[in-house]
């Protein structure tokens, strides 16, 4: 395996190993991707970690610990913090045993590119449920925000305000110091016309003129 002395070969080895390892984390590959990825990375580390290299087995353990942090983040934390730290440890683990800076840089780039490319497996294989907690939290937060906004709009029904722009028949109103986009009840209204909110459907606010005169008339 002396060919692994070439930095470009090391680049492709790390890229493929990372591609399959992260592919196993993202999709249901029945362990096949994990076996391939572990085999490739074991070859990489066994070549670079030699008695005379001055680098011990701890760099491989650092790499493994980084993967463990990514899995833990995806399963339990789901905020990306531990996953980021895990990728950083993996980069350190594969870069340290390399013979020179260029080789180490290419190995680090290969890991990042392999991580990104593994997402393509999702288009072909069924995905796992990693980071679903984060997705669910975002969904619930969005629904809560929408429901809160919807309720605040419904509270406008029956309140009075002024048109701030001309209605043709859509414009802007001011109610209790806040501005809203609204639509008039089949009426064209001039600015500064006194209005009342007659109905709200979602975020669609319908208003009508209170009297026949504008405030500036």
From TrEMBL:
Keywords: Membrane, Transmembrane, Transmembrane helix. It comes from the Bacteria. SUPFAM superfamilies: NfeD domain-like. The chain crosses the membrane at residues 6-27, 32-49, 55-72, 79-96, 102-125. It is found in: Membrane. One of its GO terms (cellular component) is plasma membrane. InterPro entries: Membrane_assoc_protease, NA-bd_OB-fold, NfeD-like_C. It is a multi-pass membrane protein. PANTHER family: INNER MEMBRANE PROTEIN YBBJ. This is NfeD-like C-terminal domain-containing protein. It comes from Anaerobacillus alkalilacustris.
């Amino acid at each position: 395996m002396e060919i692994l002395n070439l930095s470009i070969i090391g680049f492709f080895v790390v890229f493929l190993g990372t591609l399959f390892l992260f592919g196993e984390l993202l999709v249901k590959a029945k362990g096949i991707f994990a076996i391939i990825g572990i085999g490739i990375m074991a070859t990489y580390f066994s070549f670079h970690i030699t008695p005379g290299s001055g680098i011990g087995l701890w760099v491989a353990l650092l790499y493994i610990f980084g993967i463990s942090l990514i899995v833990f983040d995806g399963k339990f934390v789901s905020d990306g913090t531990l996953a980021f730290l895990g990728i950083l440890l993996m980069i350190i683990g594969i870069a340290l045993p390399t013979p020179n800076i260029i080789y180490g840089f290419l190995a680090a780039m290969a890991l990042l590119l392999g991580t990104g490319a593994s997402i393509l497996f999702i288009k072909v294989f069924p995905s796992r449920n990693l980071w679903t907690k984060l997705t669910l939290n975002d969904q619930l937060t969005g629904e809560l925000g929408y429901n809160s906004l919807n309720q605040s709009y419904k509270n406008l029904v029956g309140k009075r305000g002024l048109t701030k722009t001309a209605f043709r028949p859509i414009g802007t109103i001011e109610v209790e110091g806040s501005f809203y986009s609204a639509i008039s009840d089949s009426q064209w209204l001039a600015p500064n016309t006194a209005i009342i909110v007659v109905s709200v459907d979602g975020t669609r606010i319908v208003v009508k003129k209170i009297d026949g005169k504008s405030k500036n008339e």
